[in-house]
Amino acid sequence: MPEGDTIHRLAHRMGKDLVGRTLTALSVQGVGVVPELAGASVEGVEARGKHLLVHFEPGWSLRVHLGMKGRWRRTPAVPGRGRYAASPASVQITAGPVAWTCAGAYQAELIRTRHLSTHPRLSRLGPDLLAPSPDIAAMVRRASFPGYRHRAVATCIMDQTVASGLGNVYKSEVLFLEGIHPALPVHALAEGALAKVFDTAHRLMRDSVSRRRRETVPLVLRPSPNSPRLWVYRREGDPCLRCRRAVVRIVQEGRSTYFCPSCQPEDPPQADRKKE
DNA sequence: AGACGATGCGGAC
DNA sequence: TCCGCCTCGTCTT
Asked: How far is the CA of A195 from the C1' of C10 (A)?
């Protein structure tokens, strides 16, 4: 489930495995052999939004974006007998006793580390919601750009150039926790509401990374082990965990959004409703 | 066994 | 705003 929390969790695990080690082998689909990388050491593993970066010692970096279907697996390094050789891996990093193998990545490329700051994808990303203390004011500013203010808040907070790392699951969960109807345009929100949305997103995703599990409903509110771990996501027709009213699913720009019509009213009294 | 839908993204319209 | 991606887990026949 690759949203930002998944990628940051992965970067942490991969970093513990690889940082300081020497490459035994590296293959990136569609990329020829880079002679400089033979025997290179891994300097760092980093997540930026939904992008994973692996930095190598002679000034090269690997950038991988999983898209919806990509997956990483940690496997024992078995020389000459890749377990996943049948389905060509997007990426395989082998160092010492372990290999990290990625299948089905949306994008994978090797680039010069010094070119990262001008990379067409990376340079457009909004501040990372999983930074230790994310620049929320900058996110709010980006969401208020002309042309963005009239978009539905749900669509806006998923835009990776506004804030990076948030995906379709947290989109619904965060708006539920903030009591905001997903179809409201950004300009209709109460003062400070958007900043609270991003702050809540930061805390939810940070907790997911540290707990190694994506769950937004606190344990004390879950009577049985089978109780839902998410407030509204993928719970269409099921009772809202707060008010028991049926959760609704709408499609916004081709993506499902789940919300509770009672807890997230379309006409919140606190909203600034001035006409434009 | 087959249908369906999904966590994301960009290109076409 | 819609669709394709050719992948994979889950649900239905």
From this structure: 37
